[in-house]
Amino acid sequence: MERKEKLYLVIPCYNEEEVLHETEHRLTVKLNQMIADGLISDESRMVFVDDGSKDRTWNIITELHEKNPLVLGIKSSRNRGHQNTLLAGLMTVKDECDMVVSMDADLQDDIEVLDQFVQQYYDGCEIVYGVRSARKTDTFFKKFTAEGFYKLMEWMGVEIVFNHADYRLMSSRALQELAKYKEVNLFLRGIVPMIGFKTGIVTYERHERFAGESKYPLKKMLSFAMDGITSLSIKPIRFITGLGITLFVISIILLVYYTIGYFLGNTTPGWATIVVSIWGIGGLQLLAIGVIGEYIGKIYMETKERPRYIIEEFLK
Ligand code: UDP
Ligand code: MG
């Protein structure tokens, strides 16, 4: 292999003091092996991006940076969430390397497939998606909700790679294109497929979290899903509109029906009908307003064009 290009690993970290040493150790072994195999340049690096952690994460990153030349560190000015932190990392290194692989700090993504990512990059892929082959390590609940989420996204017409999280390779060229997507509500999994280019897939088995606990509790997961849906699809609004039209047509039909009934002398008690419709329609209206509000909120946030991340320090 004549081409030895620069690979950077970008790893968002939020309160990951328990896993960082092990992650750094295993990635160092892996990177050195890939360098020795002549697969990547010896200027390849791993970049830990601290997302305003409350524990010793940043101290550990600083220590690792001092003793290991392969380690770089970026510090976000405060907690911004996984997606923005990942973006901060990607945008900071996009001009420093030829390709980037983004991965979690907890070693859930199998690092042994890194060679395959790089191989596909050399075969001309600008984006390579890591796709999980099995969800053995997930709880039934997570499996079920994740499945439902991907199905829902598909139904909404969002192009999304099934069972792909954020373990992916992007060439620096693809990253330059990603930089043009300025939205504040960033849902990388939905945006990256919009970029196009030649893409590839690497399947891997996802491991158990090495230590510590998930930083994605149910509440964060739901808000993540909601962002994904409303930032990429207007189908919910269409759905509500359709529902509104249907209900209106039904009410006209009912009106005609009851009017005719009145003239034919059928008196209906009607109490139940009225109460049920008031509650039903009231509920629907609130739902519709809620959905519209969600989008208006998004517009409001987008128009401010606030920075998506602020970098406090870059150890390079
Ligand atoms: N993470 C982050 N900021 C947050 C929450 C999570 O940077 O506010 C990082 C976290 O350190 C990890 C990755 O995002 O490297 C994925 O989080 P986690 O492994 O907890 O999620 P799960 O794998 O359970 O979905
Ligand atoms: Mg994880």
In short, what is this structure?
The chain has 316 residues and is of the alpha/beta class. 50% of the residues lie in helices and 15% in strands.
Key descriptive features of the protein:
Glycosyltransferase_2, 10 helices, eight-stranded mixed sheet, Glycosyltransferase family 2 protein, binds magnesium ion, Spore Coat Polysaccharide Biosynthesis Protein SpsA, Chain A, elongated, 316 residues, transmembrane, 2 domains, binds uridine-5'-diphosphate, alpha/beta, glycosyltransferase, Glyco_trans_2-like, 50% helix
What features would you describe in this structure?
It is a multi-pass membrane protein. InterPro entries: Glyco_trans_2-like (IPR001173), Glycosyltransferase_2 (IPR050256), Nucleotide-diphossugar_trans (IPR029044). By secondary structure, the chain is of the alpha/beta class. The chain has 10 helices and 8 strands. It folds into 2 domains: about 5-230, Alpha-Beta Complex (Spore Coat Polysaccharide Biosynthesis Protein SpsA, Chain A); about 235-305. Helices cover about 50% and strands about 15% of the residues. The chain has an 8-stranded mixed β-sheet, with helices on both faces. Helix 9 runs antiparallel to helix 10. The structure holds uridine-5'-diphosphate and magnesium ion.
